[in-house]
Each structure stands twice: as structure tokens, then as C-alpha cells.
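Weekly structure sync, notes
Attendees: PL (lead), two postdocs, one rotation student
Agenda item 3: pending single-chain targets
PL asked that the sequence for the first pending target be pasted directly into the notes so everyone works from the same version. It is reproduced below exactly as submitted, 243 residues in total.
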Amino acid sequence: MSEQVSFGYQDISPEEKTDRVGAVFSSVAKKYDVMNDAMSAGLHRLWKDQFVRRVKPRTGEQILDMAGGTGDIAFRMAERGARVTVSDINQDMLDVGIERAMERGFDDLVWSRQNAEELTFPDRFFDAYTIAFGIRNVTHTQQALDEAWRVLKHGGRFFCLEFSTTEWPGFKEAYDFYSHKLVPRLGQMIAGDADSYRYLVESIRRFPPMPEFEGMIRKAGFVRTKVEPILGGVVAIHSGWKI
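Predicted structure, written out during the meeting:
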């Protein structure tokens, strides 16, 4: 049987997943940040602030922000003096980010269309690798983690912000109802696209639990790995070092 990967609750071929994920993000690109505000009641901004504080970007560091299309993480790190390369597989997302960067006066960001599984950057090039709310959309997650390890310098650090599954009793049931029933309706109202947001919710449920994903990060070669759950695991910050 040919390889199958998850696309929400469906199992499809890797090639089809890559194409369908691309279509999802092309569809939602222009309303992506508006929907993030609506879905999280603005909390995504606080999560991203906390994430960047953990990364501790320094002046002059070379940082790769993967799946960073609209620039939210990159802008925060550039404000702290880091030299940020923003990469995304989806050109529509990058175009939104470039437009936002121009409006905000971020002139020194590098924008590069890249597949996280097959980066064109040289070995041991970056001081840090960040990816926020993007790793679960990658077709082959382990391959992307291996590439993150490859492009990091020795002593480099990996940080991932991703949705997970909350472990808080009671809240879990309310969150499941909200995400499955209400998020697609918000997607239809704000972005005119319920199906894409239904996929995004389902992709969270199919993503590996926090301990399993930490194991995948270690398998890629990272050490001193850590998981920091937020809101009981609605989102989590994963980190590791290349030593």
C-alpha cells in the first residue's frame, strides 16, 4: 500500500496533502491574522510574545522563521536586533507578510519560499530556528525536524509553538465543542471559508501528543528538549538544542 498521511481526519497521499494544504493557506492568507484574533480572542498575540521571549533573539543573530509567512514572529524578533529569514512554502502567505513588513518599516528581513522538508540553506547556517503554528501542516514532520537540525549551527536552538490537546478536565470538552462547532462558522463569516478552518481544527487533533512530539525532536538529534504547555496544553512551546 502506498504511503498515507493525515489531512485533518482523512488519510491521503503525501502529494495530495501538500497540494491541499497549499490550497488552504492560499484561501485564508489575507484573513489569516484577523481569524487568529477571532479564534483565540487575541490570545495568540500573548502566546507569540511568550514564545519570542523564550527564543531570546539577540542582535546580529541569524534566525530562520519557518512557516512564518505573515511575519508575526519575524517582526517580534527583528525588533530585538536579530537578522531574520522568513520562509514559507506558500507564496500567498509570504506576499501578505511582505506587504505587512513594508507597512511597518521592516526593510531588512529576508523572504524565501521554502519547503520545510527540503531547505536550500547550507548546513550549520542559523543560530536559531523557529516555527509557530506550522509544523502540523508539514507533510513529513520528522523530515522537517531533521532539516531544522541540519541548518542550525552547533549550539543553535530550536523553538516550536504549536497547538496541542489541553489536559484540563472540563475545559477540554468545552474547547472541543468550540473548535469543532464554532471555529468553522467563524471561518465562514470572516474568511468565507468554513472548510479550511475545519481542516485546521482537525489537524490539531491529529498532531502527536506533547510527549510524542518531544520524542520526535530528540530523534532529530536535539538535546535538552523541553515542553512548556500553555492553558493546560491548548498550545505548547517545544524547544531543543543542537550540541
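Discussion points:
- The chain has nine helices and nine strands.
- The chain has a mean pLDDT of 90.
Action: rotation student to compare against the earlier draft before next sync.
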